[in-house]
């Protein structure tokens, strides 16, 4: 199966609700690499890389997010696959 990366911008009530923590948990469970971070404008940004099926699974999860989140929109685009990424991290 092909390896891909997806860059996602998530808006709504997504900061202060453990969104980054649960995104990392979902990514690690799916063996993805990449990162997630809060943006100053209230959105969350993520880069998900790995097997296409796993990336699409976590990408779909972003639309729901954790229990306390209220996701309004996920704008995602394909990104160039980055073999140099190791693990999945929360960027502060």
UniProtKB/TrEMBL annotation:
* This protein's UniProt keywords: Hydrolase
* Acylphosphatase-like domain span: 5-92
What residues form the membrane-spanning segments? none
Show the InterPro entries listed in the entry. Acylphosphatase, Acylphosphatase-like_dom, Acylphosphatase-like_dom_sf, Acylphosphatase_CS
- Quote the catalytic activity from the record: an acyl phosphate + H2O = a carboxylate + phosphate + H(+)
State its Enzyme Commission number(s): 3.6.1.7
Catalytic center at which residues? 20, 38
Q: Does the keyword Hydrolase apply?
A: yes
Q: Which domain of life is it from?
A: Bacteria
Listed PANTHER family: ACYLPHOSPHATASE (PTHR47268)
Annotated family = Belongs to the acylphosphatase family.
UniProt-recorded name of the protein: Acylphosphatase
Origin organism is Marinobacterium maritimum
């Amino acid at each position: 199966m092909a390896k891909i990366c997806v860059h996602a911008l998530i808006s709504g009530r997504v900061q202060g609700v453990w969104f980054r923590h649960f995104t990392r948990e979902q990514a690690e469970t799916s063996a993805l690499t990449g990162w997630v971070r809060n943006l100053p404008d209230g959105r969350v940004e993520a880069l998900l890389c790995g097997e296409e099926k796993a990336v699409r699974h976590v990408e779909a999860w972003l639309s729901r997010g954790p229990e306390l989140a209220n996701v309004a929109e996920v704008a995602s685009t394909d990104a160039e696959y980055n073999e140099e990424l190791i693990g999945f991290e929360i960027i502060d």
